[in-house]
Amino acid sequence: MSTQSTPTTKTARHAKIRELITRGTVRSQGELVEQLAEEGVRVTQGTLSRDLVEIGAARVRGADGALIYAVPAEGHEREFQADQTEATTLARLVGLCRDLLVSAEASANLVILRTPPGAAQFLASAVDHAGLRDVLGTIAGDDTIMLVTAGPQSGPALAERFRAFAEGRDPEADNAS
């Protein structure tokens, strides 16, 4: 059994705001205050307004033409992101695994992913942003990533899923069909 806790630091609040904006449609600051409260993060309108400026959030036109909040992407591209679905982030992860994953091995609740030199942190960031339920967190070096899984013996199944990602498929999506 795992428990999730978010510290009340400014950095943690900024990360949660980025997550909510990129994972869903946020039309107003009031709506974002409510979503943050549901996640256990209490914030005033004034603080939220300053936070949005600090993280570079902007209001852009969504797919339906309505104004929604978006945040700049991480890395060198910096284009605005909003309302990214789980399918979008998972598709990106599958594509990166196809290009970068060399091997995936497991032991109990740990999975070790190997990449070409210099690619581990990039792939680990994609794993983090994909929001896989089984992954508690990642640690990346130059060419190795360690994933910690939620279940005490769920490492082998997750390693198998990453090997499938490297082949361009998702066994969980295959089983759902």
3D architecture notes:
There is one protein chain. The protein is built from seven helices and seven strands, in the order H-H-H-E-E-E-H-E-E-H-E-E-H-H. The protein has 177 residues and is of the alpha+beta class. A hairpin with a 5-residue loop joins strand 1 (58-61) and strand 2 (67-72). The two termini are 29 Å apart. The model has no long low-confidence stretch (mean pLDDT 85). Belongs to the ArgR family. Pathway: Amino-acid biosynthesis; L-arginine biosynthesis [regulation]. Regulates arginine biosynthesis genes.
Attribute tags:
alpha+beta; Gyrase A, domain 2; 2 domains; four-stranded antiparallel β-sheet; three-stranded antiparallel β-sheet; 7 helices; 7 strands; Arg_repress_C_sf; transcription
- Name of the CATH first level of the largest domain: Alpha Beta
**CATH architecture level-2 label of the largest domain:** 2-Layer Sandwich
| Shape type | elongated
- Helix content estimate: 40-55%
The unreliable regions are: none
Backbone CA Rg: 18 Å
Give the helices and strands as they follow along the chain.
Answer: HHHEEEHEEHEEHH
CATH-defined topology of the largest domain: Gyrase A, domain 2
**Structural class label:** alpha+beta
**What is the strand tally?**
7
On the 0-100 scale, what is the average pLDDT? 85
Q: Taking strands numbered 1, 2, ... along the chain, how are they ordered across the largest sheet?
A: 4-5-7-6
Distance between the termini: 29 Å
Give the percentage of residues in beta strands: 15-25%
Number of domains: 2
Major pleated sheet = 4 strands, antiparallel
Number of helices: 7
